[in-house]
Each structure stands twice: as structure tokens, then as C-alpha cells.
User: Which sequence fits this backbone?
């Protein structure tokens, strides 16, 4: 079969596999897979460097489907390309436990590089992965040069580009000059609510040029045009590229092409027949895969095979520092949290300090042990204290450093972090706790994808003081704790800061948020027999007592208040135990008997400078929940503590009247 | 005093009042007030139409300080302009209960038009207010023309323009051609972490041109240059305007000008002295206000007086439809929720349906009674069903309609909604519940500002089905319930949908989120003596029983499951009451005796398709919390209900084994 004929056959196969699968599932998005089939087949048969039998090859090019609703496009192409996605898998599109869920899910399907669906996130992930490639290139080299030079090709919809998270990420990519990134914009002029004219009339190309991108235009249905644009973009050495590809949603569908009806619902049997007929496809057949449809893919991966083999040889020949650098990114064993904690505690001062400051020291000590740790701040490096000392800045043309400048772009930071985590690095990102709200969709995706992203959130309560209620977290702590698979660690002293970072470093199957104080916190006593590894149980006693009247449970800055309250209660003839609870997710994993032993005392009292109702789960019906269920206010922290009831005297008043 | 001399004196007064106040508070941001004093004095003495003794004048021009950390700039100018902000207030900057909190707080200080601080939000609010002006102009007219033509002048920092929420809002403004909006960008080339070169190198002017804005440049310290740019922007008829004003942060400070040190901490006594000396200002005096400093302000408001008086005359002369239209925006009484509920129930079908569909009918019925209700969707109008039928679209040059198209820009939608709420309208905005995460910072600000914004979140659980975990809310319900002053209403049937909208319409002191199902829900029984106004208690029995073994408490789609579970329990010889709990915030306000009566039964069991731990507050130590503490999956809804334990049979298994 001639190349162009085989190509066209592959494109039609993808189009109709997608339409058929959506029809069979009676749910899904047929129009975009049909529109983007040509571009995607072009990418997988001419541009992307990959080997389907080694989907985890570290130097593969990445394909990111940011418009994740077009998932059938990806599944169809992965099938034809030889990934472990069978025709039966495709027939089980959107069914329980299938490899082909409604939106692509990372870790679920070979060849799926990130979980997409929430719009804009994929663009940010693509930026992060492209950045990973640049960072990796500087870290792992042999005599021939860098071992990493992978590229990222992403497909993005109107919706992706309307989202702020994509705008923030694109600005970062333009600033850094990520020339290994090509985003193809599916300019179909249709959104769910109708023509893009109703709300999306900006000049997208000009916007991306303003970010410093190289912008090309193409007819998305003309292979020559697409190829020319890709050729120019891949040749571009200094800038990320955007290809504005004019396409027709649902192309070929007799009545639904170029309409929103082609977007989010099955086309209907008749419409699919019509499209097949127009394409010269047997209209009675479904899930048809002509024998030649796989040819362009296998021919391409065959051509790519030599490069892959050569790379594997280079990889096998790595020794010394280069091998160590490679292993640090790609093959590192997870550290043991208890052992790491012990190491991090060595020489760590127990002097009272802000936990943001203590955590900074711990982080720097950890960084020496964990070369994969890279990160930065949303323009609050000085306040969050998350700069890795002496590690150098990442900047345009300079990727050997470890400190990133995300700018005042929290959401972009979160999406880029996920990209970094997906490609060998352990990213951290810092901002004030209040601004965790700006990046929640990305945090959720770290948790869903089980990625080791580390969030450092400082200025963790109203006690940040004068900046007032716009900056004072109230509901953020519990709102984070609600995200499944996110661990939230709010340390109270040096040992807990070390435990927080040790846990975050050891936890490879999900993200961890460190929640740190702006203000200085007192040192904590260590009860007899205390072992710092107890902290990793999530909650543990810092003041012990037999037959206690109260068990005061606190986290972070409130542990010191609880200690003082226990002392005052003692003066009033009451016995109080004090429990520090830095990580409730870890404590939740303890056997109930352990939980009960840690929390023993006649009346349990929670104390935390944030929302109180969810604490009921830990204090029970007879317990008390002290904290803050209103917005904060602008005033010095000690005044706020007095006025808002966050003092030991207030705790005693609440308990004893 | 010559005009230019008085102007300069006013500028220096603002600069040094700001620096002195920050110094006295030992906390705050002096550099930006110093840099922007000239521009702001220019605005308040030549451009803004306002009367300080009537800060609520509905047709006043609005000044928005999007970079809210520069709050002392605003307080200084408000003081000089004659607003009710005294020198003592300024001396109490950032102190408990003062009129001058760390960031400007709406409702707290006369002349503060919106609460700012979280970056980017003020730009979005400004877009919303500019849109309000255009909408109002089409609604309230007399023989002379529209009664509203107010303009919005906003100051924005690098941080504001890096944030995605500002990007989304700016694109909306450009699309709609909001020519009454002028944003002045404080191009000081400094952020907290250093020079903007480290991460913000995009071409901002080109970016805003790509959105369809009119872009001008000015020297921010040259009044003539600023004036020329403002003249051009105010004359521009078709587009919103951006003035890129080159400024020097901390201008005049001998060692800190143009450095990040001028940004977020007091300059220090010596530095302030140096700045005063350089300006020919008595360096030993603090909080100095020369007699001439108020002159340019009073002269300006005196000039503006005639226009104000003329407007008041026109306002007083309004009659008939025009007066009614005015009152609907500016002087409307809050509806009574119970009465409104009764009206909305009239003729409302009780047939089983998806609550999104029922709520759509209620919303359309309500819209006829509430002309201030305007809104739209983040490109999901068809799925969320929030279009107001026959009300017309808002589009470029066409502002008489009520349906807005926000595009796939949830965060921009939230910020624009807040602007609409701040200027006469009751905005609603819709998207899927999962994407509430994209707009949380704006929702929080509605709650903090006590604004009547209404969020319509559909597709409210895993039972949306095949779209899978990226689209399935798990933690979102409780995460919303954690926001202080936000009411979350998750109705289960027609009567509850009517109650949800009635409550949202009547609640003028804060936002309400309606949480609605994609799928059809069964009708509910009405126990003897049921009165629909009981729904407004937040929770009420739908199945009554004496000496019940169980009290099943559910919301939304799970109420039907609870009913079926109660029936199955009955077959097993157990008595179950069923309580529908559509709004826990309202139920929390009930006297405890009422709560106990509603929830009576030996064992309380909560059932909701979302996170379970916070339900402990309502079920107590002996209760059970059934729901979902894991991410969802892609499959048809009935399969998911089976697999994830959201069926009546599962409830019975959990309770009886």
C-alpha cells in the first residue's frame, strides 16, 4: 500500500473506532477524535520517538491529550501503534475496570502519560514534562552528550486555552524557552455552548507570541500542512511552539460536522453510517481495522528502533556519577521514612523557631540526599524559605540548577509540578496556605495520579497577623485533608518538621502538603521513652498523665497553646494530657487500639486555628472542638489570639468556665 | 497654590502617610503606595466621578485597587478626598477593628469598592463592575438616556497580571468590548523574589491586545504622560484599556527604590527620612498633611458636584417602568424565602426528574420575579440548564439580555460574578460541581464580602457516571461546606429545588451554592403535616416513625436510596426514619432541641455520595457514616452505585451484615 493511502486508512480507522466505541458505550465524545485523527496519526507515525513494548522508556517523546474528553482518539491510536490496548479494551470504553475510561488515566493504560479531563491541566503538565527533559539533559550525560532530549507534543482544545492554568503555564514555558514543547491547538471554533464567537474571540496566536512562543498555522486535515508546521516547530531552537490547526469537529459526519452536537454525545448509528459512507468505508462494519491500518505505525517504530537500541546501549554503559545521576531520577529506591527522619534530626537545632524556618533547614539537608528534589515558589521563596541553598536557579538556557521561579502563578505551578513528578523528579512548590485554593485542581490530580508532589504551605493560620482575612486560612487545612490520597502534615517543632519532610520524601504513591507557621513556636517537651519515629504515627503524646481529665489534641502552633493550657488546668486541679497530631491521615491508618491509647482522657478537646466541625471525628460526642469558624481579621498576632480565642487562658475558660 | 504644586504636595502626602503608617504598624507594603501615589492622585482629582459624602452613589465611578497589599495608598487617598477615613484611622493601620485593615475590605471602609489581596481577583471584579454598568445602562433610562454610565479604573500589579483569573477575566472583557474599563498596570519590574526578569518576561501589552484591549504606555511618575494615556483610554469607545505605567517601587527611598526590599516591609525610619529629605519634606514630621494637600481633591469633587446633583434629580424624577427597573437593581427589598417558596411551588411538577432540570424550571420562574438575576455558565449552559429562557444573550454591544457566556473560565466567572454582585445584580454562575475547585478563591471572597452570588453546580457525584474520576466530585461538597458564610443546598426533589432557589434569592448577606444531580431522582413522600417551609430548616423528616432503630440522614440523590433502604430494613424487622438534609448550614442554625427531634432514632446513619468523616458531627459516636472516601471511576451510574456501595442493599448490608 502506498504511504499516503495507508496513512488515510489509519486516520479513518481511528475516526471510526472512536465513533463506534462512543456509540457502543452510549456515552463519550466522538467529534474531537474524528477531527484530530489526522494530526495524531501524523504524530505517531512520523514524529514521536517511542517503542510500544517499552512504554516507560525514559527518553520517549511524550504525547499529551490535554483535551482528555477525546480519550477514544488516544485509545484508538495506542491500539494501532501496538501498545497493550486491545480491541476488546476499546469495546469496553467507559466500562467498569476497563483500560479505556472516559478520560485518560495515568497508571491505568499503557501509553497514557498523564490524567487529563479538567481543562488546561494537560497543557501545564506538558510544560512540566518538557522542563523535566531540559533538567534531565543537564544531569545525565555521557561522552556523546545528554542522555535525555525527549520532546512533548500536546493537543489542546479551545477550553484548554481559555483556562487560566494553561495561560500561567504557557507564560512559564515561554519564559524558559522550552523549545522541546509543541502544543497543537484544535481550532475547531465550536464549544459546548455553540460557536467560539460567543465568548472566545481573542487572537490566540498573538497571545502565545506575547508569551514568547513560536506560532504556526496549519490546516488540520491536510497532512502536508500539518507536516510543514511540525517541521518548522521541531526545528525551532529557542521557543516552545504552538500550531493553530484549523479543524472541523466531527469531520465527515453528514449533519453534525462543525456543530456542538458532535462534541459530547454519540453521533447516532445513522450519522456514523453516513460518515463511513462518505469516506468509502464499509458502513455496516463496526470496529473495523483494515490490515494496512497498523502499517504506518509499525514502519515508524521500526525506523525508530535503532535509536532506541542505541540509547539503551548508552544507558547500559553509564558508570560513576552519570549512572548515579540517572538512577537518582529514574531508578531511585524510596527512602525509608524512619531512617531518613533519624538522619535529618542529627544536628538539627531544637531551638524555638517558626516551622517555616526549621523546615527550610530540613529541606536543605534532605536536598543533598535527594537529587531528584527540585522546586520553587509562586514568588514567595523568601517568605516560604524554600530556596535550596547553593543549588542554582533554573533560567532560560540554564537548566542545571534546582530552584524554579514559578511566578505569581500558583495554579500553573501545580500543573507544572505534576508534569515534573510524572517524569523523574520530586517537585516541591511553595506559597501561603491560603493560596492553596488557587491550585486545588492540580493538587487533586497529584493525588488521583498518585504522584509524589510536595506542597509547602506557610503562613498557616490567622496568626500570620496583619495581612488580614484575605490571607488568613480558616477552612484550608480541612479542605486539604478532604482530598483523598493527600497527606497533610502540620508540624509543631523541629522533630515534627523533620518527620514531615521525611514522610514527604518517602511517600512515593501520593502528594504531601507541609503546613508551616510564619511565627515562632515554642519547643515541645519529650515524654519519657519518646522516640521521634512516633511522630510518623500521625499523632502522639507530648505530655503524659494517668487518669487525665482532658486529652488536648492540637497541631502546629496550637500544640504550644495546649501545653500552656495543660499547665493552667493543672493549677486549677485538673489533669490534662497533650497530644500533638501533625498528620491525621497517618493517624487514621493506625489500629483503633493505638488511636484510643493515644487519645485517652475523660474529655477530648481539639485545638486548631481553623474550622472545627470535622474534628468531631476525633473528639467524640463528649469532646470539645476549639478553633475558628469565622473569617479572621487584620491585627497583630497576639491581639488576634486574644480576640479570636486562641490562647491557653481561653481554652481553660471554655473548659472550666 | 498653583495646580501642579498642590498636586505634587498631594502626591507626597500620600507617599509619606503610607510610609509612616506602615512604619508605625511595623507591618505592610510601603513601596507600591509610593510608586502609585501620582497615578492615584491623578485619578481622584481629575477622572473619577464621585462624592465622598455619598460613597454609595450608584453611578459613581469605581476605583479598584487590585494590588490590595498597597492598601495604605487607598486609605491615604480616601482620607485626602474626604471619605470617612480619619487620620486616627490611618494611624491605626492594620490594628484590630480599625477601618484600615492590612488589605482593603469591602463593607469595612467607605470608598473601598471590593475586597482585594488575593492577586488577580480585583481585575476580575473590575470586569464584573464594568459589565454591571453596561447592563444597568440598558435597564434604567429616562428621556436623556441611560442613568448609568459609570466607569471602572483599576490598578494592577505584576502579580495580578500573572494570575490566570485575571487572564480569563481580561479575555471576557475584551470579548465584550467593555470600553468603560481602564486597568493601569504598575510595571515596576520587581516582585517579591526579585526582578520580574526571573519569571515574567512576556509582552503584556501584546497579550492584552490579543484579548482585544486598547493598550497605552505611560511614565507613571510623569503626570502629563499619565494624563495623556488616560485621555486616550477614556476616549476609546470600543475596547477596554490597559495603561502600562512604568513606575519605580519605593520611589524616592534612598537605598530601597527599585528593590524588593521596598515591597513588603516597613522601609525603616532612616530610609523614610531620606525619602522625605529628597522630596523637600520635613523629615522629622510623621503623618504630615499640609493644608494644601486636600485642595486638588475638593476642587475636583466641587467640579463634579453639578453632575452629581443633576443625576440625583433624574433619579428622583424616575417613574413607572424606569423607576421599577432602578429599584430592582438598587433598592430592592429582600424577598421572604417562605413566601417565595410557596409561590415557586405553585404549578411546579412533582414528577421525578434530575434536580438540574427541576432547578432550571424554578430558576426561570424566579427570574420573572427577580430582574436583578443575571448569569450564565462556564460553557456548560446546556448541561447545567441555567439559561434564562427568552431573556436574551449578553454580547458585544448588546447588554439588554440576561444570559452571560463566561466561556471555559470558571475562575474568571467567579471573579466577574463578585463584581456584578457588588454593583446591583444577583449573579449566578454554573459549571459541574468538580470544577468548583477552579473557582474557590472567588467563592471565598463572595462569602467574605457577604455578597449574594449564586453558584449552580450540577453533576454532583460519582453518579454522573462514565466521565470518570476527573469529573466525579468526592470532597467538593464538604470542601464547600467548610467555607464560612457559604450556604450549600443539595436538593432531592422538586420542593427542595424550589426551597434552594428561594433561599438563594432571599439570602442577601452571602453566597449560596446549589448542588444538583445529573441523573433523575425519585419523588419523595410527604409525611403527615408536612409543610414545604420545613425544608428551610435545613433538614426535616420525609419518613416518620416512632421508636426508630435508625435515623437515615441523606441529601440529594441519596435521599431516594435512604427511602429504599428504610423499606428494606422494614422487611428485616427494623424501623427507620428518613431525614432529608439539603442544607446543613441552615440546620446548624436550628435550636439544638429541634436538631435532636429531627434526628431522633437509636442509630443515626448518614448517607451521601461524598467524603464521610465530617458527617460524624451529625451522627455521633454511635452513628454510621456511609459514602465515598476514595476517588470514583468511569462506568455507567448504576454499575458505580453497585461497585461503590451507594445502593439501598449496600446500606442494609452495612447495618445488618
Assistant:
Amino acid at each position: 500500500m502506498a504511504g499516503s493511502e495507508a496513512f488515510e486508512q489509519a486516520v479513518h480507522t481511528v475516526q471510526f473506532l472512536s465513533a463506534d466505541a462512543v456509540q457502543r458505550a452510549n456515552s463519550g465524545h466522538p467529534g474531537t477524535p474524528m477531527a484530530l485523527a489526522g494530526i495524531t496519526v501524523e504524530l505517531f507515525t512520523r514524529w514521536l520517538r517511542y517503542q510500544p513494548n517499552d512504554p516507560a522508556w525514559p527518553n520517549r517523546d511524550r504525547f499529551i491529550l490535554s483535551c482528555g474528553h477525546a480519550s477514544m482518539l488516544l485509545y484508538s491510536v495506542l491500539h494501532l501503534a501496538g501498545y497493550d490496548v486491545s480491541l476488546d479494551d476499546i469495546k469496553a470504553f467507559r466500562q467498569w475496570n476497563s483500560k479505556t475510561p472516559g478520560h485518560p488515566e495515568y497508571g491505568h493504560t499503557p501509553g497514557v502519560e498523564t490524567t487529563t479531563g479538567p481543562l488546561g491541566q494537560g497543557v501545564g503538565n506538558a510544560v512540566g514534562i518538557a522542563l523535566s527533559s531540559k533538567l534531565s539533559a543537564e544531569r545525565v550525560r555521557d561522552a556523546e552528550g545528554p542522555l535525555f532530549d525527549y520532546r512533548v507534543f500536546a493537543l489542546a482544545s479551545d477550553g484548554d486555552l481559555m483556562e487560566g492554568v494553561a495561560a500561567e503555564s504557557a507564560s512559564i514555558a515561554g519564559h524558559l524557552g522550552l523549545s522541546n514543547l509543541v502544543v497543537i491547538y484544535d481550532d475547531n471554533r465550536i464549544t459546548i455552548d455553540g460557536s467560539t464567537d460567543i465568548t472566545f474571540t481573542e487572537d490566540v496566536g498573538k497571545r502565545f507570541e506575547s508569551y514568547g512562543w513560536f506560532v504556526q498555522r496549519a490546516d488540520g486535515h491536510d497532512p502536508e500542512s500539518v507536516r510543514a508546521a511540525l517541521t518548522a516547530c521541531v526545528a525551532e531552537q529557542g521557543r516552545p511552539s504552538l500550531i493553530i490547526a484549523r479543524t472541523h469537529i466531527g469531520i465527515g459526519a453528514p449533519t453534525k460536522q462543525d456543530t456542538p452536537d458532535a462534541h459530547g454525545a454519540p453521533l447516532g448509528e445513522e450519522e456514523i453510517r453516513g460518515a463511513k459512507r462518505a469516506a468509502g468505508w464499509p458502513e455496516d462494519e463496526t470496529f473495523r481495522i483494515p490490515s494496512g491500518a497498523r502499517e504506518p505505525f509499525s514502519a515508524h517504530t521500526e525506523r525508530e528502533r535503532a535509536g532506541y537500541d542505541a540509547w539503551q546501549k548508552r544507558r547500559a554503559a553509564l558508570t560513576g556519577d552519570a549512572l548515579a545521576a540517572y538512577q537518582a531520577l529514574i531508578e531511585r529506591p524510596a527512602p525509608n521514612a524512619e531512617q531518613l527522619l533519624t538522619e535529618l534530626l542529627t544536628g538539627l537545632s531544637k531551638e524555638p523557631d517558626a516551622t517555616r524556618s526549621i523546615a527550610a533547614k530540613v529541606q536543605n539537608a534532605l536536598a543533598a540526599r535527594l537529587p531528584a528534589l527540585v522546586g520553587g515558589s509562586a514568588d514567595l521563596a523568601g517568605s516560604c524559605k524554600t530556596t535550596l541553598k547553593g543549588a542554582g536557579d533554573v533560567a532560560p538556557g540554564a537548566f542545571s540548577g534546582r530552584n524554579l521561579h514559578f511566578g505569581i502563578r500558583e495554579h500553573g505551578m501545580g500543573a507544572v509540578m505534576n508534569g515534573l513528578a510524572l517524569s523523574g523528579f520530586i517537585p516541591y512548590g511553595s506559597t501561603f496556605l491560603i493560596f492553596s485554593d488557587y491550585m486545588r485542581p492540580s493538587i487533586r490530580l497529584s493525588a488521583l495520579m498518585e504522584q509524589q508532589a510536595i506542597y509547602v504551605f506557610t503562613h498557616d493560620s490567622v496568626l500570620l497577623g496583619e495581612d488580614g482575612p484575605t490571607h488568613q486560612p480558616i477552612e484550608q487545612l480541612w479542605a486539604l485533608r478532604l482530598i483523598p490520597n493527600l497527606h497533610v502534615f502540620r508540624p509543631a517543632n523541629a522533630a515534627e518538621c523533620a518527620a514531615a519532610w521525611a514522610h514527604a520524601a518517602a511517600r512515593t504513591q501520593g502528594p504531601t502538603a507541609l503546613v508551616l507557621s510564619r511565627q515562632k513556636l515554642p519547643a515541645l517537651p519529650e515524654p519519657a521513652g519518646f522516640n521521634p519515629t512516633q511522630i510518623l504515627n500521625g499523632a502522639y503524646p507530648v505530655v503524659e498523665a494517668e487518669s487525665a481529665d482532658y486529652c488536648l489534641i492540637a497541631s502546629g502552633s496550637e500544640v504550644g497553646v495546649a501545653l500552656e493550657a495543660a499547665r493552667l488546668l493543672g493549677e486549677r486541679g485538673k489533669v490534662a494530657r497533650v497530644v500533638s497530631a501533625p498528620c491525621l491521615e497517618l493517624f487514621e491508618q493506625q489500629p483503633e487500639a493505638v488511636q484510643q491509647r493515644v487519645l485517652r482522657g475523660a474529655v477530648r478537646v481539639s485545638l486548631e486555628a481553623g474550622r472545627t466541625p470535622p474534628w468531631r471525628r476525633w473528639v467524640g460526642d463528649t469532646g470539645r472542638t476549639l478553633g475558628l469558624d469565622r473569617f479572621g481579621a487584620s491585627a497583630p498576632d497576639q491581639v488576634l489570639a486574644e480576640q479570636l480565642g486562641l490562647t491557653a487562658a481561653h481554652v481553660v475558660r471554655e473548659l472550666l468556665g
